[in-house]
Design a protein that fits this description.
CATH class of the largest domain: Mainly Alpha
Strand order of the largest sheet: 4-3-2-5-6-7
Largest sheet: 6 strands, parallel
Structural class: alpha/beta
Bound molecules: iron/sulfur/oxygen hybrid cluster, iron/sulfur cluster
Number of helices: 20
Helix content: 40-55%
Shape: globular
Keywords: 4Fe-4S, Cytoplasm, Iron, Iron-sulfur, Metal-binding, Oxidoreductase
CATH topology of the largest domain: Substrate Binding Domain Of Dnak, Chain:A, Domain 2
Cofactor: hybrid [4Fe-2O-2S] cluster; [4Fe-4S] cluster
CATH architecture of the largest domain: Up-down Bundle
Subcellular location: Cytoplasm
Low-confidence stretches: none
Strand content: 5-15%
Function: Catalyzes the reduction of hydroxylamine to form NH(3) and H(2)O.
Enzyme class: oxidoreductase
Number of domains: 3
Radius of gyration: 23 Å
Distance between the termini: 47 Å
Length: 544
């Protein structure tokens, strides 16, 4: 196996025997084979579009299959066997439709014709033989750019899938994914073309995040500032992790009146601020911190635990029976709730467990500072900047992880001077989300914009401020201090770069799949930089 797609990759170069994330060689090979199978399907889809054939089922499948290969989503070989079989059967049926419409179905690329082996062992062998990452390009810089795009497309597919679940789709997103997956079967592109392909991924991702924002706010209302209890209420309990608001809503409906309190974990925290979710009286509080702490925090949760997306880690035997998955996330031998979304097994498990035996007060944290709320007080913010009450804005966000070096972000937030505001999003915030940082003129200094996909909201806030100050986003007193872990962070970074945003600081380490030459291109064009050794150094450079 060779996988280097996330920040915790072995030795900072690549996982070759088993993933640091727990991914086994078998699953790594199956993911490579699925990616290859999706390339074959994409080649046919591209030819189909040329003759007006657009297949919605193929579009949705493509996004789901790519999302399944994202870090910490699916560790179950059987499900990958099914995904690969479906990719090939969709490819063949699409060929028939495209041919009937007068399109081309003669392909030189082997991806468009491969037959999957009948067994998982056979598939694993096929996947391993691909040597997928190395086969992308013989030239290491071009391969690096192709990897950036493959990983970026994984993040993009995740957001496109979440948006589609809430009824928000745009054909241009699927067109880009198919065209790109097809283009990645070829070699001979030059560096500039591939830089363009990667930036285009970021541009399309802005659309995908916009669709998801429309899905979330259109279905559940605009987030409103909401204090969320960090303590617990006596009674039975279910903890919901991942990112999916729709799954949470269905669970809230199915648990109404059953005496079960629902808690959020990780990236689900901002769900408390959506009016159509917060209206449920049994939607109580938030439990725990970021994904990498689940092995420490989950054994202490006396209820059922539902994963709606990444990031799942190997469940310890002590709590494995309490864990359930749904959607694209999966772990072998963990009960999976299928598309019918009947959460009865989760509910029954919660009822069978002890639940919390007493009330515990641990205070609250504030969430719900999406674009609507922040722009609702834009006048106040602008006046405060003009009056020099606000000196600078920092966006400190991104994803958390287990590797050392991430204390930088906690210390950074602690050291930000009192006349500066901090916007945050995604799971990186759990390093400082409960800090009491006070306010400036009644506006809290620490504003939780939401999940990682709410980078869309943060971008809208920045664009609106730039409009008010009649300057570009790069001219605002705003600095982005980002942490990355998996491929959604990769695509968000591509989005920011595609918008021309400069001087982003990235940590805790730079991606293993970026070569020195590609890094030079990014530094020259976007002045992107690694975080400094200490927050004090970066603060000094930024604030002068
Ligand atoms: Fe974190 Fe995991 Fe949300 Fe990622 S929970 S690491 S960037 O999935 O997507 O922020
Ligand atoms: Fe290694 Fe990350 Fe790939 Fe897992 S996802 S195998 S930790 S690089």
């Amino acid at each position: 196996m060779f996988c280097n797609q996330c920040e915790q990759t072995a030795q900072g170069t690549g996982c070759t025997k088993v993933g640091v994330c727990g991914k086994k060689e078998e699953v790594a090979s199956l993911q490579d084979l699925l990616t290859y199978a999706v390339q074959g399907l994409s080649l046919v889809a591209v030819e189909g579009r040329k003759v007006g054939v657009v297949d919605k089922a193929v579009d949705r499948f493509t996004a789901e299959a790519i999302f399944a290969c994202l870090t910490n989503v699916d560790f179950d070989p059987i499900r990958f066997q099914n995904w690969i079989a479906t990719a090939v059967s969709l490819r063949e049926s699409l060929k028939t439709t495209v041919k009937a419409a007068g399109g081309n179905v003669d392909f030189a690329e082997p991806q468009a014709a491969f037959t999957p082996a009948a067994t998982i062992a056979g598939l694993e062998d096929q996947g391993a033989k691909l040597d997928f990452i190395n086969s992308l390009d013989a030239n290491e810089d071009l391969r690096s750019l192709k990897q950036i795009t493959v990983y970026g497309v994984r993040g993009l597919a995740a957001y496109a899938d979440h948006a589609a679940i809430l009824g928000q789709e745009d054909e241009s997103v699927f067109t880009y994914i198919h065209e790109t997956m097809a283009e990645l079967t070829r070699q001979g592109q030059d560096l500039n073309t591939l830089v363009g392909m990667a930036l285009k991924c970021g541009e399309v991702n802005l659309k995908a995040m916009e669709l998801l924002d429309a899905g979330n706010t259109g279905t559940y209302g605009h987030p409103v500032p909401t204090p969320v209890p960090l303590g617990q209420k006596k009674g039975k309990a279910i903890l919901v992790s991942g990112h999916d608001l729709h799954d949470l809503e269905l669970l809230l409906k199915q648990t109404e009146g059953k005496g079960i309190n629902i808690y959020t974990h990780g990236e689900m925290l901002p769900c408390h601020s959506y009016p159509e979710l917060k209206k449920y009286s049994h939607f109580y509080g938030h439990y725990g911190t970021a994904w990498q702490n689940q092995a420490k925090e989950f054994p202490l949760f006396p209820g059922a635990i539902l994963f709606t997306t990444n990031c799942i880690q190997k469940p310890a035997e002590s709590y494995k029976a309490n864990v359930f998955t749904t959607g694209l996330v999966g772990w072998p031998d963990v009960t999976h709730i299928g598309a019918e979304k009947d959460f009865t097994p989760v509910i029954n498990r919660a009822l069978a467990l002890e639940g919390f035996t007493s009330d515990t007060d641990k205070g609250t944290v504030l969430t719900g500072f999406g674009r609507n709320t922040v722009l609702g007080v834009a006048d106040k913010v602008i006046d405060a900047v003009k009056a020099k009450a606000i000196r600078h804005f920092f966006l400190v966000g991104g994803c958390d992880g287990a590797k050392p070096g991430r204390n930088y972000y906690t210390e950074f937030v602690e050291q930000v001077p009192a006349d500066c505001m901090i916007l945050t999003l995604a799971c990186g915030k759990f390093r400082f989300f409960d800090k009491q940082l006070g306010d400036i003129g009644g506006i809290p200094r620490l504003l939780d914009v939401g999940q990682c996909n709410d980078a869309y909201s943060a971008i809208q806030i920045a664009v609106a401020l730039a409009g008010a100050f009649e300057c570009g986003v790069n001219d605002l007193p705003l600095s982005m201090i980002l942490s990355w872990y998996e491929q959604k962070a990769v695509v968000i970074l591509l989005t920011l770069l595609s918008l021309g945003i400069k001087d982003i600081r990235l940590g805790p380490s730079l991606p293993a799949f970026i070569t020195p030459n590609v890094l030079n291109v990014l530094v020259e064009n976007f002045a992107i930089k690694p975080i400094a050794a200490t927050p004090a150094e970066d603060l000094k450079t930024i604030l002068g």
